What we know:
With 380 residues, this protein is an all-alpha fold. It is 60% helix and 3% strand. A two-stranded antiparallel ribbon has the order 1-2. β1 (212-216) and β2 (219-224) form a beta hairpin. The longest helix has 34 residues, at 151-184. The radius of gyration is 22 Å and the shape is globular.
Amino acid sequence: MNLMTPTAATDTQQQLDTVFNALQSGQALLPDSPQNVMEVVGILKSYGIVLQAYAENLIYIADHQFLVLFPFFKYFNGEFSWGKLWRHWFHDRINFEYAEYCLRVMLWHGGGGLDAYLDSEEFVGLAKKAIAAKTADNPMMRLLNYLFPEFLPEVVRQWAYYSGLGQFWTVMYPIFLTLSDEYDAGRITTISQVVAHIRNGLVADASKPITYSVEIDGQTYDILPASAGLTFLMDTAVPYVEAIFLRGTPFFGTVSYNAQAQQISPEQSEFGYGALFADPLPTGAAGIPPTLVMQDMRHYLPDYLLKFYQQKNRGEDDLRVKICETFQKSMFCVTTAAITGLTPYPWDTTNSTEKEANGEFYQAWLQRLQTSQLITVQNT
């Protein structure tokens, strides 16, 4: 009798095969169970509330703080009060810094039509017109632009991402909030239905235009014109998944940024620090950006999800870690929706040739995700 246990590699491959078969049969990267459904819907409701706040603030900054290099009150959405300032100083507020972290990660990793357009001559021409108008009555800004001609155009690129990410999240947060409503009404009971709801939302707005213009002294200046042909799915959603779900940035305090230490790959395409890869323990540690979104979501947890956490080991003592674990589950559902929405052929095709092509597409994704938390969530 052979009592040898399978190697870790063999066990991992077997689980990947199980996930592949699930995708082929219309299931998700996350196994279906009442607990997983409850966790995913609950955390996405909280996330939806937070995303709404993030989106509104990003768009406010894009529209009303254009080329303001020191926007001290940018997180106040134009509604300053001493009470808000007090809560800001003591961190009793939404951590909008995380939204900015996400946009900067997207800007750095690039990808998609938005990134390509921001490197075009057309964009540079539009940016220069807006810069000239904004600096017309500001000699210091004009001098800065003269001495460093590439600086302000790069700032405009960042502001374009403020608007682009804000528009992306403006589409996403209603999807998550209506998902919660459907669950509360008893119409969402499986993970497949969760994925279908998200996928339908993504597909419905796939061609939604992404545009951005600013008003300066009563005149409108295009930054991302409609003629650029930028759209929600391919130019914001897909680059977001790549930059935030997959690549991310090394976590401060857990990985050395010293080049001599060689702990970080010089190739951005090899980065695996995104939401799907993060270890919930260091992600819940101080000083690491994803901690901010976990902190934000803890304020809006549905009662049933908070009660679930309270009944687990340590109760609320490690609440952010529990939130991170659940959040990763939910992001695998969102990733499933994105993957099945991008398949070469309809995800539910019965044509054998088309199904085989979709299968190759799934295999490529699973190869990419094999070092993520995918295997972990299969067993929780």
